[in-house]
Amino acid sequence: MTVSTAETKQNHSVKEQLSNTNPLIEFQAVLKEAIEVLRYPNDVFEFLKEPMRFLEVSIPVRMDNNTTKVFRGYRAQHNDANGPTKGGIRFHPDVTPEEVKALSGWMSMKCGITGLPYGGAKGGIVCDPRNMSLRELELLSRGYVRAVSQIVGPTKDIPAPDMYTNSQIMAWMLDEYDHIREFDSPGFITGKPLALGGSEGRETATSKGVLYTLERICELKKIPIKEMTVIIQGFGNVGSFLAKYLYELGAKVVGISDVLGGIYDPNGLDIPLLLNSRDSFGIVSNDIERSLSNQDLLEKECDILIPAAIGGQITKNNANNIKCQIVIEAANGPTTKEAAKILQERDILVVPDILANSGGVIVSYFEWCQNNQGYYWTEEKVDQHLKEKISSSFEKVFQTSQCFEVDMRIAAYIEGIRRVTEASRLRGWITW
Ligand SMILES: NC(=O)C1=CN([C@@H]2O[C@H](COP(=O)(O)OP(=O)(O)OC[C@H]3O[C@@H](n4cnc5c(N)ncnc54)[C@H](O)[C@@H]3O)[C@@H](O)[C@H]2O)C=CC1
Ligand SMILES: O=C(O)CCC(=O)C(=O)O
């Protein structure tokens, strides 16, 4: 697959925008504010601002043209006081150590809010999977597992899919781990195919979680979803299922995008057609015209804006131009702290990533429980438990935001920090 000029331009402008945002600094800034609201000592900030463990590895891969290419890979384990660490693996050309560290911190917060018996982790490999063959991807996936095998495992650190990784990549990783350990360990990784011990409902879990969060917001604001206009940035695992569910519920999805640009129609898009024309990387067929850039799409009028692609999309540069009532963060880290402040001043509600997209890790937890028990649930059971867990997490964060008079992001961090620090304190890792 070759990269088009349009894509190069799009990537270039995204990079320019991202160059001003460092996800680790973003994570640390909100962490610090939440710790101050809690009146916890600064030692807590010093303890949580970086992952407890960070591994950087080289992965040599014999490419199809017979040359050897060496890829950089990372695994960050933020805090394991509450249990083994948990978090996805991202394959993306722009992966950086700072991004992986921040993503691991966000995972700790997510697991804390939702009360899962995990700490946060995240992995990443600097690569462009869209320009690699299946054979090369398999070798890279297996090489990554060999390189990190000492620090991962079903009771240590459990990976899962994230951007540009999927159930097939999880299957190769599981197989490699089983070879190294010499026994069958389905609980090593989640988001794997059903035939290898995956869970019903994991593929759709993140988007369903976002949907349940949105339903709660609509109830609170007393606006029916049917009357909503929605824009979704990103049409991959999260964005595409979300578009499908919203369309089925009668909402008007007026804009979507992929890495190549935005597709917009104020009368509503033909979502079934777009779903049929997307590839496994969440890219819609080139026959469909992208009338505007990703950045322009974010500034179009709608009721609900859902960033569901990459981080650093809503910044101080465009926050004043956003024209919606509610932003639901399906992606990790799409809104910078400065931008969130501007949106709050403009009375735009932001539902934070660490709450809104926690459906993925919640169902990954159910998958791990099923693997440990060797007993598998129906999709209805998975869905019912997901709804219960995300709804109770939402109520907790909402109450905390009222109680401390803070926005939902700070409230979500407060819940995450409380749980991580309680376990760390009981273990004697921090004292005050
Ligand atoms: N898959 C999961 O279970 C979870 C995913 N997330 C987050 O949701 C977001 C999306 O993840 P997935 O849907 O799994 O990824 P994916 O790889 O399935 O899809 C990514 C989508 O984003 C688009 N995209 C890539 N680069 C872009 C750019 N520069 N500008 C605009 N669009 C771009 C792609 O074309 C594709 O449509 C990520 O931030 C991820 O960390 C969060 C929680 C769980
Ligand atoms: O399913 C998981 O364990 C982690 C999903 C993830 O990486 C995320 O929530 O960002």
TrEMBL record:
CDD domains: NAD_bind_1_Glu_DH (cd01076)
Domain Glutamate/phenylalanine/leucine/valine/L-tryptophan dehydrogenase C-terminal span(s) in chain numbering: 199-428
Keywords: NAD, Nucleotide-binding, Oxidoreductase
Active site per database record: 122 (proton donor)
GO MF terms, alphabetically ordered: glutamate dehydrogenase (NAD+) activity; nucleotide binding
Classification via Pfam families: ELFV_dehydrog, ELFV_dehydrog_N
Residues reported in the UniProt entry to bind NAD(+): 206, 237
Entry keyword annotation includes Transport: no
Acetylation recorded as keyword: no
Superkingdom of the source species: Bacteria
Single GO biological process annotation from the record: L-glutamate catabolic process
Positions bearing the site annotation: Important for catalysis: 162
InterPro entries: Aminoacid_DH-like_N_sf, Glu/Leu/Phe/Val/Trp_DH, Glu/Leu/Phe/Val/Trp_DH_C, Glu/Leu/Phe/Val/Trp_DH_dimer, Glu/Leu/Phe/Val_DH_AS, Glu_DH, NAD(P)-bd_dom_sf, NAD_bind_Glu_DH
Binding site for substrate: 86, 110, 364
Family, per entry: Belongs to the Glu/Leu/Phe/Val dehydrogenases family.
Name recorded for this polypeptide: Glutamate dehydrogenase
